[in-house]
Design a protein that fits this description.
Helix content: 25-40%
Strand order of the largest sheet: 1-2-3
Number of helices: 3
Structural class: alpha+beta
Distance between the termini: 41 Å
CATH topology of the largest domain: GMP Synthetase, Chain A, domain 3
Strand content: 35-45%
Pfam family, one: OsmC
CATH architecture of the largest domain: 2-Layer Sandwich
Number of strands: 6
Protein name: OsmC family protein
CATH superfamily of the largest domain: K homology (KH) domain
Length: 139
Amino acid sequence: MQARVKWIEEASFLAVSGSGHAVLMDGPPDAGGRNLGPRPMEMLLMGTAGCTAFDVVHILKKSRQEVTNCEVSIEAERAEAEPKVFTRLHFHFIVSGRQLKPEQVARAINLSAEKYCSASIMLGKTATISHDFEIVELS
């Protein structure tokens, strides 16, 4: 796996993944940016949410659960002093489907958190991580 980041101007950088996808990252106006894209630490949170959502959907499908949607919101706190690592993360899952079993959803989230999601497991080295979920029943 690889990625490349190139400085564009001021606080703007273009990140290109090894698979060829590009994302513009930018800083806030008070740091010389123009707010044209997410901050690098926001990208880290978005990537972590994507990693765990992928796991949860995959695990639920393998468990023959009829999952139709999964959304993950992350709330994060960072250290006051440099390096401003994440110190607390809370993941809130909204899982939609038909006749989803709460114990299966909880199991999928726990497996992701403890075994499969590389991103959240890495962040767990500096942050306290918690999870909760809600199920939206579709008719």
